[in-house]
Amino acid sequence: MTTTGPISTINDLFSRVCAASNPSVVLWQDALGRWQPISSDQIYQRVRAFALAIRKWGAQKGDRIALVSENRWEWAVTDFAVLALGAVDVPIYPTLTGEQIAVLIKDAGCRIAVVSTKQQFDKLAAVRDRTLLEHIVIMDGAGAPPGAVPFSELMGNADGLGSQRDDEFDAVVRSVKPEDLATLIYTSGTTGEPKGVMLKHGNIATNQNFAVHEFSFGPTDACISFLPLSHITARALDYVMYGSGAQIAYCTKFDNLPQAMKEIKPTVFVGVPRVYEKIRQTVESRASESPVKKRLLKMAVGIGAKHAGVIYSGGEPTSGPWKLCKKLVFSKVHDAFGGRARVFVSGGAPLGVDTAKWFASVGIAVWEGYGLTETSPVIALNSLVNHRMGAVGRPLPNVELKFADDGELLVRGSSVFPGYWQKPAANAECFDAEGYFRTGDIARLDDEGFLYITDRKKELLKTSGGKLVAPQPIENKLKTNLLVAQAALVGDKHKFISAILSPNFAALEEWARHHGAAARTRAELVANPKVVALYGEIVREVNSALASFETIKRFRVVPDEWSQDTGELTPSMKLKRRVITERYSAVVSALYADEATAHAG
User: Where in the sequence of the chain do the CATH 3.30.300.30 domains occur?
Assistant: First the structure.
């Protein structure tokens, strides 16, 4: 079994894990919340047991198998087992409805599905007749419902086999080739119907080999797996950790993350921008509880900002004031991540320079990366070796770039997918004549080869005056304020730009209590003139740094919290603009009701 060097398939990665003789590759929490270890040998035996069990059901190379689960050790075992056979797993977000899951499972032609809980099983059972499903495995074994096969039943006496190896099974694992299909990952559909992204073993393996060559991950590292594994960013990170001999702790519920960070004390933290924004807002919210704390945080961030460049370059400032701020303030922010983290990465959406600067000002360098599901995922990534704040890093060595006339980034390389599952029309549209994939992102390269993503091509707003406005950077500026949870710019084909703001209601309601603006309902609260004036100040502050044609001329604060569950956000916390514009069509109409006579600015 290979233990060092590059990998050519995900099965090589699995073999590396099994050869490591690691007593605690994985940590998981039992019913009492205690962290329990799983060894290399246990990983091997459980994967082997699962793979052989589904092979008895007829699963073979190329078959698609659905995986509907939160992050847990069984997810990884299922993934490795399916890939070990040369079959194809189809990870599906557990937050989707039964109807949505049925569409994906039918499209992929899955005959086997693995689900985490009875809740997930019930969703599938209700729509089973719309699919080709023959077997449903449930990870929660206690009281498995009729029609479900307990995961534990497939495990048998796996753990009792210790370090034994199965030569026949190992030969099957080795027989899988880089060109074999590994997974179908359905895009979350920010702009339209979900499409199944086909990723081959070689696509993901190549990305693994190149994405982390400037990071020195190893057996002393640990990370918490909490971002949805149905998203390629989280899955790629876990593969990196497995391949580095590091430890992975599975956090099933996002709400458990703060406690998990205290207990695990990860050395590596990867989050989407919203996670970083929430941590910043929590720090600022706690500081605002007392005038002294608020002044102290403001002063410390101001002092830290003078040394942000040193932090971002991997240094440690030596000035007395900075050291004092570190002791009194910055250490507490670091403690929110467990206190031991040495690598912080942001991906999945643009981080925003404001957020990056704030974290650098409190002593934390957040390395921003960029990629897509279709690129396995990393295209570019900042690191301690090569970095530029505001950029997404330098492109990986295995990726070729070029730009369309309108600034759209096109990429080609060994980590770029072969196409969408059963979507010939979409495939013809997304590749150019030279085989470059159209990313849909507007981007540029600077003189030193750093890549900057300015916005999504389909999300650019074009005013009736012909000016193009990139909404994401402006929305990110709005969200740096504690009182703004989400923001969506509108104004395509209109004379001016407007904003729809979804408040951070915990912070707003606290503010309202202290400023005589308390209300019985959220609708009353956001309509209160004091609240409207408060958000008007936030908008004015953001406008002060924008070009005239970009400025937000009007805004509306809505009485709703946007979330994945309510449909406005994707699982990676991106705005579903189509959903928002449809849901708030009356609000948008009111914002532009007198547009013909309004001053465009």
Answer: 460-591
Reported for 522-531, long-range contacts at CB under 8 A and 24+ positions apart, including other chains, are 522/559, 522/560, 523/559, 525/559, 526/557, 526/558, 526/559, 531/557
Q: pLDDT tens digits, residue range 132-150?
A: 999 999 999 788 899 999 9
Q: Which of 254, 212, 452 is nearest to 352 (CA)?
A: 452
Q: Is the pTM of this model over 0.70?
A: yes
CATH topology of domain 460-591: GMP Synthetase; Chain A, domain 3 (3.30.300)
- CA 309, CA 357: separation in Å to the nearest integer? 9
Which amino acid, 53? Answer: A
From the number of C-beta atoms within 10 Å of its C-beta (0-12, 13-18, 19+), residue 299 rates as: middle
Q: DSSP readout, 454-468? A: EEEGGG-EE-TTS-E
Tell which residue, 227, 237, 224, 240, has the closest CA to residue 271: 227
| Separation of alpha carbons 377 and 236, rounded Å | 8
Give dist(CA 287, CA 299) in Å, integer: 12
Residues of the chain with CATH 3.40.50.12780: 10-186
Q: What sign for the dihedral angle of Cα 241, 247, 251, 254? A: negative
**CATH superfamily, domain at 10-186:** ANL, N-terminal domain (3.40.50.12780)
| Residue from 49, 302, 258 nearest 159 by CA | 49
The amino acid that residue 412 corresponds to is R
**Spatial CA neighbour of 349 closest among 574, 40, 21, 22:** 574
At 344, the amino acid letter reads F
Q: How far apart (Å, rounded) are the C-alpha atoms in residues 277 and 32? A: 31
Evaluate whether 126 touches 98 at the Cβ level (below 8 Å): yes
As a 3-state breakdown, the chain gives helix, strand, coil percent values, each rounded to 5, of 40, 20, 40
Residue ranges in the chain modelled with pLDDT below 50? 1-3, 190-191, 601
Closest among 484, 493, 496 to 558, alpha carbons compared:
484
* CA–CA distances in Å: residue 17 to residues 4, 67, 206, 415, 487: 11, 22, 18, 22, 43
* 323, two tokens: 């050291």
Contact 365, 356 (CB under 8 A): no
Q: Which amino acid is at 414?
A: S
Query: What does the pLDDT look like over 249-263, one tens digit per residue?
Result: 999 998 899 999 999
**Cβ 211 vs Cβ 382: under 8 Å:** no
